[in-house]
Write a structure and sequence with these properties.
21% of the residues are buried. The strands form 3 sheets. This protein has an 8-stranded antiparallel barrel with strand order 1-2-3-4-5-6-7-8. Strands 9, 10, 11, 12, 13, 14, 15 and 18 form an 8-stranded mixed β-sheet that branches. A two-stranded antiparallel ribbon has the order 16-17. The chain is mainly β. Helices cover 7% and strands 48% of the residues.
Length: 229
């Protein structure tokens, strides 16, 4: 009579443990809030469950350059200390801080306690002789171009569909500071393309950091004479 009760007791024990997992609040730069609970799945693999607006999302731990990155499809939750980034594939990336208080502005951050992430902001302008073709996409990359004998290392990328947008087009990308090597040369590059056809490109080097601090980058793209890359 005892043996049939063991599976039921096991399920009840797991339910109690799940209910006791601490939910940690996060507040994001867009004013949104959510809670995260960190646990393991049935195979002992780390995972994070996000509680947002009455919905739950469970993301599995995946390899990352630093911190802890949890992912499931387009959902990404990257934590480093009290800082975190959240993406859902539909809205702009949210920069979040552990706790109920709103995250302080970048200017209020203490020099002795820098954020784990660097925000790269700017705008892109271009002068088209005619309307852009349907399907044209603006691709912006934050890169490390310090290695003369190797291609630029892409640290972050943002793609913006240009249908109906007016210039200048603003952008914002966030880079994990642990990816910024001591002698790194961080720049921003951009291009407009339709499929494999390159339409516009940045032909000037745009530094993204000065003395380790992000700067606002205003880019102007040049039209490409040829049609193919």
């Amino acid at each position: 009579m005892i043996r049939p009760l063991l599976p039921l007791l096991s399920l009840l024990f797991c339910a109690v443990v799940h209910a006791q997992v601490e939910r940690i609040p996060y507040t994001c730069d867009d004013g949104s809030r959510f809670a995260a609970a960190f646990s393991t799945d049935n195979d002992g693999r780390p995972q994070a469950t996000l509680f947002m607006g009455g919905r739950e999302f469970t993301l599995s731990l995946v390899p990352a350059a630093s911190g802890a990155l949890y992912r499931d499809g387009e959902f990404r939750f990257h934590t480093k200390g009290d800082d975190a980034l959240f993406e859902d594939g539909r809205n702009p990336m949210r920069r979040c801080t552990r706790g109920d208080a709103a995250p302080p502005p970048a200017a209020a951050t203490r020099p002795d306690a820098p954020s784990s992430f660097a925000d790269i902001t700017g705008s892109v302008a271009f002068h088209a002789r005619s309307a852009l073709p349907a399907g044209a996409v603006l691709v912006i990359r934050v890169q490390d171009t310090s290695r003369a004998d190797a291609p630029a290392l892409t640290l972050a990328e943002q793609r913006i569909e240009l249908a109906g947008l007016q210039v200048p087009i603003p952008f914002k990308m966030t880079v994990d500071r642990d990816l910024l090597r001591k002698n790194a040369r961080i720049t921003v590059a951009a291009r407009i393309q339709r499929g494999s056809t390159l339409l516009f490109i940045s032909d000037t080097s745009y530094p993204a950091l000065i003395d380790g601090q992000p700067r606002h980058v205003e880019m102007v793209l040049k039209q490409v004479a040829g049609k193919r890359r």
